[in-house]
Amino acid sequence: MDSGAIAQFLPLILIFAIMYFLLIRPQQKKVKEHQKMVDQLRVRDQVVTQGGLIGKVSKVKEDGEIEVEIADGVKVRVIKATIAQVLSKTDPVS
User: Fold this and answer.
1) With contact defined as beta carbons under 8 Å apart, do 58 and 68 qualify?
2) Per-residue pLDDT for 93 more than 60?
3) Residue 92 pLDDT > 80, yes or no?
C-alpha cells in the first residue's frame, strides 16, 4: 500500500475514533451504571419508573420483575429494566 491509500482512509479512521469516544463509550458506561442500580434494588426503596410512576418496592423477584406499591394496597408488577431512578435507598440488611 502506498501513502496515498493510507491518506484516504485516515479521515474515516479519525471519524470512527471520535464517534467511539464521544458516543459509544459514554453510552456503554451509562448502561453499566443503570444495570448496577437495577441489580442493587431492595425492598422499601423508593423508585421512579420510566412511565413516571413513583412507588416503593415491596418485592424483588428473580425473574426480572419487581412489585411496586404505588398507593396503599395498590401494587403493580414492573420489569426491573424500566426503573429510571432510585429516589431513596434503604440500608442493606447486615
Assistant:
1) yes
2) no
3) no
Complete domains list, the chain, with CATH:
1-86 (2.30.30.140)
Dihedral of alpha carbons 35, 33, 49, 90, sign: positive
Give the SS3 label for residue 62. Answer: coil
The tens digit of pLDDT for each residue in 66-87 reads 999 999 999 999 999 999 999 9
CB 41, CB 47: distance < 8 Å: yes
Question: 79 to each of 7, 22, 30, 67, 76, how far by Cα in Å?
Answer: 50, 30, 19, 9, 10
